[in-house]
Amino acid sequence: MRLNEISYNDAVPIDGYGTGFFRIGGKRHDGAVLVMPSGVSGWGGFEDTAAVLDHVGDIDVLFVGTGAEIAHPPVAFRTALEDAGIGVETMASPAACRTYNVLLSEGRRVAVALLPV
Fold first, then answer.
1. CA dist list (Å): 17 to 1, 22, 41, 54, 69
2. The pTM is what?
């Protein structure tokens, strides 16, 4: 088997998660987080579209982690992002973390918004 080292360039991978927190780029972040190409910040939930819309042109897809279980985001949230040209993929937060890391390692223009598990 051949193993290849993954390079994430300037973006940070999600190292892990637990009850109420995420470990991203080696640092612990409590509560909901937004991981963008420019860095990691707190996220205000589905009402907070401004932080994502500031990155129109920088990302193609936003993965939305809805906590321990998959749930549908509000229509207004999805519509605001899709109207701006950002694809929205919703899944449980553990799956969103894994999917984000895989696509990030491929050099894709992705971001992730995560509600804690």
1. 29, 4, 15, 26, 14
2. 0.90
Which of 77, 82, 79 is CA-nearest to residue 66?
77
One-letter amino acid for residue 7 of the chain = S
Question: Alpha helix (H) ranges present in the chain?
Answer: 50-53, 75-83, 93-105
Q: Let me know the angle formed at the C-alpha of 9 by 18 and 115, rounded to the nearest 5 degrees.
A: 25
What is the tens place of the pLDDT at every residue in 90-109?
Answer: 999 999 999 999 999 999 99
Residue with tokens 């985001």: 73
Phi, psi (deg, nearest 5) at residue 100: -55, -50
Residue 27 contacts residue 14 (beta carbons within 8 Å): no
